Hints:
The complex is a heterodimer of chains A (310) and B (231).
Chain A: H1 3-30, H2 92-96, H3 99-103, H4 107-118, H5 134-139, H6 146-149, H7 151-169, H8 203-223, E1 235-241, E2 253-258, H9 268-281, E3 302-308
Antiparallel strand pairs in A: 1-2, 1-3
Chain B: H1 15-21, H2 24-67, H3 71-78, H4 84-99, H5 107-129, H6 133-165, H7 170-230
Helix pairs in contact in B: 1-7, 2-6, 2-7, 4-5, 4-7, 5-7, 6-7
Amino acid sequence: MDRAEATGxxxxxxxxxxxxxxxSLGLATATKKPLLSEPxxxxxxxxxxxxxxxxxxxxxxxxxxxxxxxxxxxxAAPMPEPASPDPLPPPPRPVEAPPQPKVQPPPxxxxxxxxxxxxxxPQKPATKPAPAKPAPAQAAPPKPAPQPARPAPAAxxxxxxxxxxxxxxxxxxxxxxxxxxxxxxxxxxxxxxQKPTGAVLSPIALSGIKSAITRQIQPCADRQVNPxxxxxxxxxxxxxxxxxxxxxxxxxxxxxxxGVGDANSRYEKRVTDLAIAAYTGCSPLRNLPEELYRTxxxxxxxxxxxxxxx
Amino acid sequence: xxxxxxxxxxxxMSPVALFxxxxxxxxxxxxxxxxxxxxxxxxxLSHALRIRRINHDxxxxxxxxxxxxxxxxxxxxxxxxxxxxxKVFGAGIAEWRRSTVGKVVDREGARSRLANAMHSTITAExxxxxxxxNILATIGSVAPFVGLFGTVWxxxxxxxxxxxxxxxxxxxxxPGIAEALFATAIGLFAAIPAVIAYNRMSYGxxxxxxxxxxxxDAFHGTLSRELEREV
Lengths: 310, 231
């Protein structure tokens, strides 16, 4: 090995080492590019539930919407029944509310009556207020406007005073504070629970139930004899009505048959009979989830199953 | 090949990781092919340097030879150089001196001896230049098959693993096949430069041989004229 060959060997070794380093670093970083979109999980089911559902059901009640307590709790001195603070505040209101209609109706008739009385008034010029006739007629319309306006604050003020006195006399620790109805419907509820309150049938649960039924039917389905060529292409969709114990409530009914062509149309009736026989033969189905028997969007009480000869 | 998880997928394309996952047979094939690749490139680089140097120096030597006045002095000065042209020239001069040392000179015999001496020197020089090219040819033709052997072996292994895992998911199939195909990749990586270099160097050495033959013929003509004048 002369000098040229040694040089060549050294260069070749160095070149290979460099290439290996480039490939190791370059390929490792090239495949770590960020994904354009987040990967999503896809599940294949024959039939989807009508609405999306969580896999975990909410067994506890949703968080109550509670108004914040107004002030520190205080003993209610005069009232004999401080034990139930919640029902107490409403009584003052019905008590206070009647005065409002009582106060308001009198001014309203007055407003209506005044013009009514003053309009006939010009026809009687002999009376004393005759000179002032135009003035009340013009002054009268402004008057009625403040009058209904005034009773409203007046009614509101006693109401506030009543609640203030009521709270002083009863309990200051009531959960129904001054801002009891403030922003009703616009404030976010303190509950963060988004879970559905009842059992719902998710697509995953539905496919799980279907595969469980298929598995239990399999021994009976395997016993069926293929009646002829092409019969195994027929797909029979049966509707099962099940009892809670897993037994059939009624004979399975044929929803539809698919895959029937010229070659195998004569086996259609036979295959549907075989399908019904398979489901009746292994009928008491076991270990189906009890809570999904009947839910808001269906359950295994009424389920469609496909049947196909092996 | 013991179940590389899906989390290791990005790192799987690293050549080192592919090599480390491979079966022992595939590893041996890969090591052999990498050594073949290194050897190929060593031959390519050394021969490329040598052929370039010979082309350059031969042209310079021939230019100076035809410009020289006294052939004997030029022989004493330059015939020891490690150059094909110098060796052909030295062989011709040596044969000339041996043939013309006696009183009676057989001109025809001397001419054919001169031609033979120079021609055999040319073939010897070309043989010396081309001695490693057969390795390039061998690697160029055999490396793809060796890589293919590694691939077939690796795919056999990964299929038997699939049978054992009872799962045909791509995550089970893919790593074994990827590392098996890596063997073919290395085989092609070694073979392609070897084939290209073999063709280029055969052409370069043929050119050197043609140039040496032309030089020998011209020198033979000169010596023949000298032989006629000698007697």
